[in-house]
Design goal:
The complex is a heteropentamer of chains A (240), B (488), C (81), D (518) and E (111).
Chain A: H1 2-33, H2 41-54, H3 59-67, H4 69-89, H5 104-126, H6 135-161, H7 164-187, H8 214-238
Helix pairs in contact in A: 2-3, 3-4, 4-7, 4-8, 5-6, 6-8, 7-8
Chain B: H1 2-23, H2 29-49, E1 55-58, E2 68-71, H3 73-96, H4 101-120, H5 124-142, H6 148-179, H7 184-190, H8 196-214, H9 222-228, H10 232-258, H11 260-266, H12 268-289, H13 293-314, H14 317-348, H15 364-378, H16 384-398, H17 402-427, H18 441-459, H19 462-468, H20 471-476, H21 478-486
Helix pairs in contact in B: 1-2, 1-4, 2-3, 3-4, 3-10, 3-14, 3-18, 4-5, 4-10, 5-6, 5-10, 6-8, 6-9, 7-10, 7-21, 8-10, 9-13, 10-11, 10-13, 10-14, 12-13, 12-17, 13-14, 13-16, 13-17, 14-15, 14-16, 14-18, 15-17, 15-18, 16-17, 16-18
Chain D: H1 4-14, H2 21-40, E1 47-52, E2 55-61, H3 64-84, H4 90-108, H5 112-131, H6 138-166, H7 178-189, H8 197-204, H9 207-228, H10 234-252, H11 256-277, H12 280-311, H13 322-325, H14 327-341, H15 347-358, H16 362-388, H17 401-419, H18 422-428, H19 439-458, H20 460-464, H21 475-493, H22 498-517
Antiparallel strand pairs in D: 1-2
Helix pairs in contact in D: 1-2, 1-4, 2-3, 3-4, 3-9, 3-12, 3-17, 4-5, 4-9, 5-6, 6-7, 6-8, 7-9, 8-11, 9-11, 9-12, 10-11, 10-16, 11-12, 11-15, 11-16, 12-14, 12-15, 12-17, 14-16, 14-17, 15-17, 16-19
The chains are: A mainly alpha (240), B mainly alpha (488), C mainly alpha (81), D mainly alpha (518), E mainly alpha (111).
């Protein structure tokens, strides 16, 4: 009796999911049959005018940091919230990752790796408006440095190198910097997060110093994400 | 209209600065929090005053190719709720919250920013982002006490809200795919050519996603859990703003993007009203069973939200006015109730209904406030809840939902059963000597302020209704909204 | 040619996903997660989306896997001891 | 022009400020007397209009009927406040003021909205009056509140039906909401079947609260019935049945307060009959009867209150202290008894005569006589215990002057109305063409009283016996049990299993998709 | 490319199935990861145009894929990562308190 109950429950679950799949299939099929390719006014505009309007070659970056920079602010806030949640969830006592300690090869390699990671992160951040990458990815790569330190030399060393308080502050500074750069737009008589409209010289597209405020926004996000992810990771490790 | 964007940025900036002040300058913490809340109040009043005729603020000055913020009477109402609740709650929390003070304020400010963003934005994806901001930070607030129950509630909340978010995101993506834009007005225009079936499927996803956050039965289960062991001042904002912001988003999406004609044709209005009726009946039945005061109030919140949904889904002008007025009233009433509960908890850590026995003789004024607010939430005259319920019932009757109107009155009766239970316990003499920590003026003053609003809005309902009366024209006829947003 | 690879990748993606969900051992399924992510990255690159590809590689399959590993480290292993 | 109800509200607000004992007395005396004076000087036909939300309300409208009702309410307010002021606390006094004020507002309201608001305010204030007195009355207060809110909501639903059908709130042309108005008024009137709250509330609550409740609660019901439901002839029989039920129940009672409660049901039966006849004469008779009823029933409640105050209990034996030691109380009891029995030259006689005159139906006339007869028998029991049966109870303490003042004031009024029945008519310009003191009316008035005395003496040992058994069946308790069990089962479904909850959620999604797409 | 949409559907439903049927909290979080991945894949799929190039316009291209969904995908990835991290942190906390990873045993809150 109990067994039948369990099986019927399982069947019910599968039935639900399958019917959801069938519905989705219908919807996708219907959508696919529509003539939807013509409806790309917005992205056509971005593609044709984006380089002149924002000065960034990477249109994804220009969408992220200029056209829809407000989204990015919200997204950064989500990350900050997550970091704050994790940092307050951890207790004061410290704990390390369990398992066997690594050999000397690992620690040596880590030391070699760290400058490379730093440079890669910097590159991704600074060339965010020219190449794939940007503040988020660059920030993550930079965050890998303390993470690697944590993994190889334990939390104490990592936190000695990068103080948790400092990380938190730099995260906040990154977020504040993003907002402050956005406020520049208001100062010059335009709107919040305005770039080209706020009489910021956009420079020549394709140059490193171009695209107005986008690189600076990228840097701020990079700082924020790097610090935030490092906090998240260390907090998870410390969690006893 | 710079103020519109400041409404979102100021709480964010405050939150970041609190984060810095935690490490370096600890002394400025309280002045920072209070002064920021006061400036915020001023900003909100400024924006609300300018909400009619509606105006558009374009972030980055990109106009239609970027993200726009739009201040219309509907969002003005929600800003009004923030204005009414935020400063009292902040003043209350400065003394009330003892552990994790900084985190509490960081999350509260971020949550407020998220809600303000949800309310103001006119962009579908931006709406999702701010929804995520507000729900993640409110989830953090649920877990703030780090008790078993708090963490469990936070986990359930996280699971449900993420599930809801993914469905909203799915619908958003499909909408973008179909229309090629994310601006609500343009989507609304494009949607005229989309076949009925696809639109209904999208609507189902939107409705499911948002209702998960609103908590209509049977999607309500996580909601009382989040209330049970969270800091009680947060519950004020949670029931007054977080749940309501989901209502706001749902209504905005449904009325502006899909349009009232489609809602009527697809049968959502009928389903919504029926759903609301079921919800409040069941919620009232469940609320009677609770022994924990916060949980009882949570179930009551579910029921009240159901009334609001009925008002908003009736689909007439009167219904929208009644529903929106009830949103405001419920925020005030529930805020008062939670704040009084919080003072009880603060003074003698009473959480169960049994524990508050005889407290009326210790706190006569606060208990009176509690009685006023609970009678208001039951819907007895001459308090504000009565007026809004009256408007909802009248609207339901006018548009033919006779059963809904009738059951609202039955629900009023049912809700009296459990509120009266609490009140009677409050007024029963207790022989035990109660050791009481006196709540200071900073705790009782916000409570009494909100409680007095219950009476003021009941006697002079025209005060808020001046704003609310302008809402229906924007929702019932989405052409007006679209015209303003497109700047034509 | 590219279509064939693409379709193969999709099928692999599904297989890894199913494997991830239906294996009994949690550690195995967590280890499958970066493989899943890596296949997604390749698909993104094929679909001309380098930005999301890098982000997916770094965040979704990199960091998230780390998080999962830490979580398992903190929970299941203790149970076994 | 300030309305009397509003005056009381202002009084309640003024009482919020911490006042000295003396100031309290002064204030309440001033407010109550001012209310009487204002009511006396109201001009029939005067009305106030007020714009509220989208409708135009008439919160204040005077005509002959409600002027008289308001006047007696104000007088009762004065007497009751004087009577109880030495005993009740400040918070109680506030609630009493709100209660009286809302009753007066209900009487003078010119539209359904104001009526409903005042109606619910009465419920709220009186319930809290009961709830806040002592721990014994908590459950009673709960029950009372729920019953009355159910009645109020029924009224509200009637109003909604009315409003959606006609588009206005006028009190005059009521047609759609009649069944719901009936339920609302039946609960307020303690009609048989809806009467369960009345004996509970009045006997559990302290006596001074019972005095105040007895003046207003049912009487507002009667007044509103005269406004909304006059002229529905079949209701007369219902009133008759209710009254007979009241006689049967009150004979069984052991406690004096309960006897008085059921006697209210009988008296309300008279008024229902008067109103449901529907002619001007009938309604006027009913309203006059309301006035008289307030006078003598209040006195009786007050007298019992004195007994409770002096001896501590309200059993019949304790009434025996009356004859010797409490002279004013004894006189008042006697006058009130004569009034309630309808003996000529006492006040009840006048209104009963008018109602009797208005009745055409022979069955109802017979019923009316039976009711008068029953009332006499019940109160003979009362009188018997008070004056004729020897009692050894001692008086613990003397009743305060204020209590006796209240009783005396009403007794004088009773005598005045009884001896000079045209006094009431002249006061309000409602002239009934009736010669009260001609042979026919005198005879028919005194008959039931005269019959009842020999029958009481004959069957004394059956009637006087205290029946322990208390016939009490409450259908509402069973409904509450159903409500509780349903909630319990529903609550059990919420067992904290997240998987189950998620399953509910997904099922909802599928149902939604099905509903929308097909 | 049609098959990829079906893959999105399958992944989506697989995620839902994992969430509703698995009792292990970590598996549930994994279900959310799959769900999120499927949505990102959907975003990238709708951005793709046959024969298009990535939206990095160092010179003039004929067809360029839609940049907006890619930006949205980036945002979604970051948000999803944050939510996953928070979920896992709460998971660890819950495990420390309840000593179990079974969802059905987290039953302090009921009624």
């Amino acid at each position: 009796m109990n067994r039948i109950n369990v099986i019927s429950k399982k069947l019910y679950k599968i039935g639900l999911v399958v019917s959801l799949a069938i519905f989705l299939l219908f919807i996708f099929y219907d959508i696919h049959n529509l003539e939807s390719n013509s409806k790309r006014y917005l992205s056509d505009h971005y593609i044709s005018e984006g380089v002149q309007e924002t000065g960034a070659i990477n249109i994804v970056t220009s969408v992220l940091y200029d056209y829809r920079a407000f989204d990015t602010l919200g997204e950064a806030t989500v990350l900050l919230t997550a970091a704050a949640i994790l940092s307050f969830l951890v207790p004061i006592t410290k704990d390390k990752m369990r398992g066997t300690p690594f050999t000397i090869i690992v620690s040596q390699t880590t030391q070699v790796f760290i400058p490379f990671l730093a440079i890669l992160g910097m590159y991704l951040i600074f060339f965010g408006h020219l190449a794939p990458g940007g503040g988020f990815v660059g920030g993550v790569v930079i965050a890998l440095i303390p993470i690697l330190l944590t993994i190889t030399y334990r939390v104490e060393f990592s936190e000695y190198k990068f103080k948790p308080d400092k990380k938190k502050v730099s995260e906040d500074i990154g977020a504040i910097g993003f907002v402050l750069i956005g406020l520049l737009g208001i100062l010059t008589g335009s709107n919040f997060l305005a770039n080209g409209q706020a009489n910021v010289s956009l420079g020549d597209a394709g140059e490193l110093i171009s695209a107005g405020l986008i690189p600076y926004l990228n840097i701020m996000i990079g700082i924020k994400v790097g610090a935030g992810l490092a906090i998240i990771f260390n907090s998870l490790i410390k969690e006893k | 209209m710079e103020a519109a964007v400041w409404v979102i940025i100021l709480p964010l900036l405050t939150a970041f600065f609190i984060g810095i002040s935690k490490v370096y300058v600890k002394k400025i913490f309280v002045p920072l929090v209070i002064s920021s809340a006061i400036i915020y109040l001023y900003l909100l009043i400024l924006v609300i005053n300018n909400s009619y005729p509606p105006n558009v603020y374009s972030v980055g000055a990109w106009r239609l190719i970027g993200i726009n913020l739009m201040v219309d009477p509907f969002s003005g109402l929600f800003l009004l709720i923030i204005a009414l609740l935020f400063l009292p709650v902040i003043i209350f929390s400065v003394k009330y919250i003892k552990s994790y003070k900084h985190e509490y304020f960081i999350f509260t400010y971020i949550m407020t920013a998220g809600i303000a963003g949800m309310v103001l934005t006119a962009d579908l994806f931006n709406l999702y982002v701010f929804l995520e901001v507000s729900s993640l930070s409110s989830c953090a607030l649920v877990a703030l006490k780090k008790t078993n129950k708090g963490l469990e509630g936070a986990y359930k909340y996280l699971v449900m809200s993420t599930l809801g978010s993914f469905f909203i995101l799915l619908a958003t993506i499909l909408t973008y795919y179909l229309t090629g834009t994310l601006n609500i007005a343009e989507i609304s225009l494009e949607f005229n050519e989309i076949p009925f079936k696809i639109k209904s499927a999208l609507m189902a996803f939107f409705v499911f996603g948002y209702v998960l956050k609103i908590g209509l039965i049977p999607l309500h289960f996580w909601l009382p859990d989040t209330y049970e062991d969270s800091p009680i001042p947060y519950n004020v904002l949670s029931s007054g703003l977080v749940m309501k912001s989901a209502v706001y988003a749902l209504i905005k999406v449904l009325y502006i993007i899909f349009g009232i004609d489609f809602l009527d044709k697809s049968g959502l209005l009928q389903i919504g009203v029926f759903w609301g009726v079921i919800t409040f009946i069941v919620a009232h039945l469940l609320a009677f069973q609770q022994s924990n005061l916060s949980r009882l109030l949570a179930y009551s919140s579910i029921a009240q939200i159901a009334y609001i949904m009925i008002g908003l889904f009736v689909g007439t002008e009167g219904g929208l006015i009644g529903g929106n007025f009830h949103i405001l009233n419920h925020a005030i009433m529930k805020g008062t109730l939670f704040l009084v509960t919080a003072i009880f908890y603060y003074s003698l850590s009473a959480v169960n209904i049994e524990d508050i026995k005889g407290l009326a003789y210790k706190f006569p004024i606060l208990s009176f406030t509690f009685v006023v607010a609970s009678l208001a939430i039951v819907g007895l005259p001459p308090f504000n809840g009565f007026i809004s319920k009256w408007l909802i019932v009248e609207a339901a009757l006018e548009s033919g939902f006779v059963y809904a109107a009738f059951f609202i009155l039955v629900g009023t009766f049912l809700s009296l059963t459990y509120y009266l239970k609490v009140i009677i316990t409050l007024y029963t003499k207790n022989d035990k000597e109660i050791v009481v920590e006196e709540p200071g003026l900073s705790l009782s003053l916000p409570t009494i302020f909100l409680g007095s609003l219950c009476i003021v809005f009941g006697v002079v309902p025209s005060l808020p209704l001046r704003l609310i009366n302008k809402i229906p024209t924007f929702l019932l006829d989405n052409g007006e909204y679209i015209r303003v947003l497109l700047g034509g | 040619m590219i279509d064939l690879i693409f379709n193969m990748l999709m099928i692999f993606l599904l297989i890894t996903a199913f494997f991830m969900v239906f294996t009994k051992d949690i550690l195995t399924s967590v280890i499958t997660l970066p493989i899943f992510g890596a296949i997604l990255v390749v698909i993104f690159v094929i679909l001309q989306a380098p930005g999301p590809a890098i982000a997916e590689a770094v965040i979704a399959s990199g960091l998230t896997t780390f998080f999962f590993v830490i979580t398992i480290n903190k929970t299941e292993y203790e149970q076994n001891e | 022009m300030i309305t009397p109800g509003f005056l009381y509200f202002i009084g309640a607000i003024l009482l919020l400020f911490p006042v000295y004992e003396k100031l309290k007395y002064m204030l309440s005396f001033l407010v109550t007397v001012a209310a009487i004076i204002i009511t006396l000087h109201l001009i029939p036909g005067y009305s106030v209009q007020l714009d509220f939300l989208t409708f135009t309300l008439v919160p204040f409208k005077v005509d002959n009927i409600n002027k008289l009702t308001g006047l007696i309410f104000a007088v009762g307010g004065l007497a009751a406040v004087i009577y109880s002021i030495s005993m009740c606390s400040l918070s109680h006094l506030r609630l009493i003021f709100v209660f009286i004020g809302s009753a007066l507002t209900a009487v003078f309201s010119g539209d359904l909205f104001t009526l409903y608001v005042a109606w619910e305010l009465m419920t709220i204030s009186s319930s809290f009056l009961i709830i806040m007195t002592s721990d014994v009355t908590k459950k009673t207060g709960y029950y009372y509140f729920l019953m009355h809110v159910a009645g109020g909501l029924s009224l509200l639903w009637g109003i909604f039906l009315q409003y959606s059908a006609t588009g206005n709130f006028s009190l005059n042309n009521i047609e759609v909401g009649i069944p719901f108005f009936m339920i609302a008024i039946a609960i307020k009137l303690a009609f048989v079947g809806f009467h369960t709250w009345l004996p509970l509330a009045y006997s559990k609550a302290p006596f001074y609260v019972a005095v105040i409740l007895s003046i207003y609660t049912t009487k507002v019901g009667v007044y509103v019935m005269s406004r909304l439901l006059s002229g529905i002839n079949s209701l007369a029989y219902a009133g008759l049945i209710s009254a007979l039920f009241g006689i049967a129940m009150s004979l069984k009672q052991k406690r004096v307060l309960k006897l008085l409660c059921y006697s209210i049901i009988i008296q309300v039966g008279f008024m229902i009959i008067g109103i449901s006849i529907g002619t001007t004469e009938g309604i006027t008779g009913a309203i006059f009867h309301l006035v008289n009823h307030i006078l003598y029933k209040t006195v009786l409640f007050m007298v019992v209150g004195v007994v409770i105050y002096t001896t501590g209990k309200d059993s019949f034996e304790n009434l025996g202290i009356m004859g010797r030691k409490l002279p004013i109380t004894s006189i008042a009891t006697f006058v009130a008894f004569m009034g309630i029995a309808g003996v000529p030259f006492f006040n009840g006689y006048m209104s009963k005569s008018i109602i009797k005159e208005a009745i055409q139906d022979p069955i109802l006339t017979l019923g009316l006589n039976v009711m008068s007869f029953g009332t006499c028998i019940i109160f003979l029991k009362f009188i018997y215990y008070a004056f004729f049966k020897n009692s050894d109870r001692k008086v613990d303490k003397k009743p305060p002057v204020s209590m006796q003042l209240g009783i005396g004031f009403l007794t004088v009024l009773m005598l005045l109305v009884g001896i000079h029945p045209f006094f009431l008519e002249n006061l309000t310009n409602m002239h009934v063409d009736l010669h009260y003191f001609d042979k026919k009316h005198l005879l028919s008035g005194i008959q039931p009283f005269l019959w009842s005395i020999p029958i009481f003496i004959l069957f004394k040992k059956y009637i006087v016996k205290n029946y322990e058994r208390f016939l009490y069946f409450d259908i509402y308790l069973n409904m509450a049990k159903l409500f509780m069990t349903t909630g319990y089962h529903l609550s059990n479904y919420h067992d904290g299993k997240l998987n189950k909850y998620l399953l509910w959620a997904t099922s909802t999604l599928i149902i939604l998709l099905l509903l929308f797409m097909f | 490319m049609q098959i990829s949409y079906i893959a999105v559907i399958i992944l989506f439903c697989l995620g839902i199935y994992t969430i509703i049927s698995n009792k292990n909290i970590i598996k549930m979080v994994m279900g959310f990861t799959i769900l999120e991945s499927s949505l990102i894949l959907l975003l990238i799929l709708i951005s793709y145009t046959p024969g298009g190039t990535a939206p990095i316009l160092d010179r003039q291209y004929e067809i360029v894929v839609d940049p907006i969904p890619q930006a949205l995908a980036l945002t979604t990835i970051v948000i999803g990562g944050s939510v996953t991290a928070v979920m896992l942190a709460v998971t660890i906390k819950l495990y420390k308190r309840y000593r179990t990873l079974n969802v059905d045993k987290l039953r302090k809150l009921r009624g």
